[in-house]
Amino acid sequence: MPPALLALAVVAFGIGTTEFVSMGLLPQIADGVGVSVPQAGNIVSAYALGVVLGAPLLTGLGARIPHKKLLLWLTGLFVIGNTASAFAPGFGTLFAARVLAGLPHGALFGVGAVVASRLVAPERAARAVSMMFLGLTVANIVGVPAGTALGQALGWRAAYLAVAGIGLVALAALVKLVPHQPRGEGAGIGRELRAMGNRHVAIMLATAVVGFGGCFAVYSYLVPMLTEVTGMAESSTTFVLALYGVGMTLGTLVAGPLTDRAPRPTLYGGLIILAMTLAAFYFAIHVLATALLCVLLIGAVGSLITTPVQMLLMAKADEAPTMAAASNHSAFNLANAGGAWLGGLVISAGWGWTAPALVGTALAVGGLALALVAGRMDGGVSLRGRTKVVASGLATATREPAEARD
């Protein structure tokens, strides 16, 4: 794998850290800006709002900018957003700063996925993209717990400053390691938007929103579920979040090779296993050992489905894959918001702390149904190998003209 993938992984590590570190520092943030903890929780939504808005907007605005230059501009915006978060004097400015920090998230992953896929031969494209995603999963094991500990020891502002520092390291790595990749003559926002109008792209984005929402219906309430039902001590919850991150890393490691061999079967199998694991978690949560095993599996299978969705989107928008790849992360953040809302809805309705697992199961089944519909639109839902349509699309999406390499 090319060294440039390391630079992309560092970017992903910074994004993963800043996306989730706020959740562990809400009490400190609330005290610091003079609001309640529930109000402080809105900064998590602010970041997600930035992701949803920024992915299509910044990708469209940068449609003619060479990939490496666009990566540098987006990473610079990431550094500015997190630095602004660290120095925000009040809740309003912090909310705005978190929106700003979230704006480059989807575009960075979208452009990064296209760059990664073009660094290697087409048959290894999914492996390259999954290596970039590995930075995101490692952030859940190392970055988020370390950022949380740093914020608790030195103040929440220190955590955001540390993330900005990671962004500066990523900038240096991008400058040094990523080769120049010029845009084609026909590149532009019109071409990207036409690709987004493809019904295959639309249904894959819907699959991501619904299917991945199953993970977030449980993940959003994982800590109170384990403390209230399993009886785990609050001091142990950091370990549980790290365990979830380990699962994500394992899932990402196997996702690349499996997706290179058979993208649709990998997606179908991942969603089936996710639905089964979430259903099992409803019963397994009462015993600590089985609850922790399910947490590991949910993290693994959730990450397993990320890579095939990304690659299928790029295949279907083969003439202009960047916005489709970026919009995938808008879809994941909508899944985050929707899954958390539905999970909270059943808890508030009095169904109990285990109810989000049933919501997650239903969403995973819904995602599977949408994935099967997408497969049928391609002329079949075979569980063996990749369809000719997908194979052709992936080859086109990852093809790089000779002059694009330094």
Give the helix/strand layout:
Layout: H1 4-21, H2 26-33, H3 37-40, H4 42-61, H5 67-86, H6 91-117, H7 125-154, H8 156-177, H9 189-196, H10 199-219, H11 222-230, H12 237-261, H13 263-284, H14 288-304, H15 306-316, H16 321-348, H17 355-377, H18 388-398
* Share of β-strand residues: under 5%
Low-confidence stretches: 380-406
Ends distance: 17 Å
Q: Treating each run of at least 4 consecutive H or I residues as one helix, how many helices?
A: 18
Q: Over all CA atoms, what is the radius of gyration? A: 20 Å
Question: What CATH architecture do you see?
Answer: Up-down Bundle
| Class from helix and strand fractions | mainly alpha
Residue share in helix? over 70%
- Counted up, domains total 1
**Number of beta-strand segments:** 0
User: Considering the protein shown, what is the CATH homologous superfamily?
Assistant: MFS general substrate transporter like domains
Assembly annotation: single chain
CATH class: Mainly Alpha
